[in-house]
Fold each of these.
Amino acid sequence: MKLLIVGGGVTGTYAALLARGLGDVTLWEAGSTVGGRMRGGLSACDYGAQYITTTRARAQQPPHRGLADGGLLAPFDAAARVVGDNPFSGGGEAPDAAHFVAPRGFAALAEHFAASSGAAVECGRRLQSIAVDETGTISINGAPTDYSAVILTLPVVTLLEKVSIGGRLAVPEALRDVSYSKRWCLMARCQLESPLGWAAKYVQMPAARYICDDASRRGSGAGSEGTVLVVHSSVPFALEDPSMSPAAAKEALLHDLRQAVPELRSVGATECVLWDPSQVRKPFAGSAGFAELSPRVLVTGDAFGPSGNFDGCLVAAEKTVAQLSKL
């Protein structure tokens, strides 16, 4: 089998790893490096995913165990290190939950999967169109290819809005129902009057919903240039004004940051980005782990797993590769 995987996030890179025994695998990533929505920002901090929640049983199985043994995942005591109105206190989580952070950044997980897969990784490759003709030939960006199968892992909203899907490919109606949230994310290099007593803090403010000390959350010390604080807006704040500029979002989030962190002395370099799409709001209906555009062109990702998180990406990749292995 000659397989093309489009999207270098967790789902795509893990699928490449799982598919290494199926034949020749090529992985396309539109950005300059793999990582997808887990890529970092200012000072390589994690502005998107903050921690991984799994079960204690799964934490002892691949790939979690190997990631932990390799120093790519580390246990995170969320109940003790996350304060405020958070979902980890007051018995609000499953009793067998286990939490992890990525000391080297969450993008390092996708980088590890890609490097271990043996796939030919091609960054800067963007999918613009895909079609299958009556002979079964798959055309990519208008040109016929000799790929025997394609896995599409880019967010569903991106696929439907940015990619032309034609020929004998059919888009399931349920795919159009998938939706995602979005949030503004501020990264700010700060000087503090005194150490914070927490790694992350949930707040209820006009713009901000979550604040974290990126180095403390990862379990490392602050850099010589100061502490990088990451601020997530609430979803409603990001949705209420679709035309909001990064400058306006930064001003609102900085205002809330100063109110929520009295230890804050000064703010230096900042970066404010719209994390869109961020988390799955409405997943794809069904439990197959993928959607078929044709038997050899499958769509998968966090919207297709049992949960829209890291484990959901892994399960979706597992089910998708298992399906292709039957061909």
Amino acid sequence: MSNTAYSKRSRITILYFGIARTTTGTHIDTVDISEVSTPSIPASHKDEHVKRTAPCEYGIPLSRLIEVLIERHKGTKLREILDICQWSVDLEMTTNVEDILLRGGEEVGVIPPVSGG
């Protein structure tokens, strides 16, 4: 495997929309999964094998990625904004940020509420 292929799969791409984009000052961000430590495996995770596997082998919960993004954008109101956002992983909407495990290579969308008229 080439270093380029490995580095693409070890990164998570974050796409910010609406107020999340305005707050961070960017539309796209990346996080290398090797830089993110995971304190524990989510208790709610249903796969028993995952519960017994070391963090580096199973990935990180989406909730941990959210904490990393908040830390990256200290001094902003990103925490409050992310609390009301919806999330997508590889173009699929998700509601439970604890059950989604990211292994690298995913595209995560930060989608704030929208209104229209």
Amino acid sequence: MRHLPDCYYCTLTIGPSSSDREIRFAYRTQSRLLHPDKHPEPEREEFTKRFQRLLEAYECLKDNSARRIYEIKCFLEGPREAQWDEEHQQLLKTEEKAKEKNKRDEIKKENEEEEARRRERMFRNQESSAERDARELKEYVREARKREARRKETEREARRREAEREREAIRREAEREREARRREAEREREARWREAEREREARRREADREARRREADRARRSAGRRGEWLESSDDDDDSDDDSDDDSGNDSDDDSEREPQPFKLPDDWPVRGFSRGYSSGMRWTQPEVEYMKFLRNKGYIWRTVAVKVSERFNTGRSEAACSAKYRRG
């Protein structure tokens, strides 16, 4: 009687004469190979059934009593035991040969797949090399175009700067010419203004001399009527008029110099009035004109008050003369 190929011993890949130690070793080895978690999802169901069969075989054979009962049921006692063992060994050898053949076929298939992958990689590398060369060529052309564009831009910038410098030079030259013309016109205006100023100053001096002459004439006529004209004043006025006439032909610096005021000495006698006292008499027109005439000649207010009081005998003070002069 021949044994079944899917017996517990075949499941553990051992013989009926194996020891407990060999049974444990075979179980551990097969459990690592047949565990469902070590296989992909499509094959997990099949390996789950095989793992359950392996666990069932180990649970039966690891117990001596259960193993004895299993051998009795399978008719493995007496001379049939050796025959079964021999057949089992032959079956194991056949399975080993099939496994080796399958392994060789798998190795061959893996080699073929590896060769195909190598050829594919080589082909891809060739394609990638060609693509890389094409990319490098495109990059080189792009860089060359960029360099050419930068060179043209640099040339345009240089031309623009040169034109800007030329425009700036022209502008500065025009600015210098305008400034020179402006300064020349300014000098001409200044010269005309100075000439006009000299003419106005000459006319003003002439008018002042004429006014002083008229004032002196009016003062003489007024003093002649009163009989109080001072001969010294006439001599002073005539000498002043002569000096003014002689100085009319002097330079601009002499004409612009102010006359020095005449100052009386501190011990000059003041008759009939004090410095801060005024008689309060009403001003007459000849008295006012004579007071303005003296002040315009450059006399200080003390001298003006003394001369006016001596000529018209009115006892005018400095404050009264200055106030009347300001009021006009």
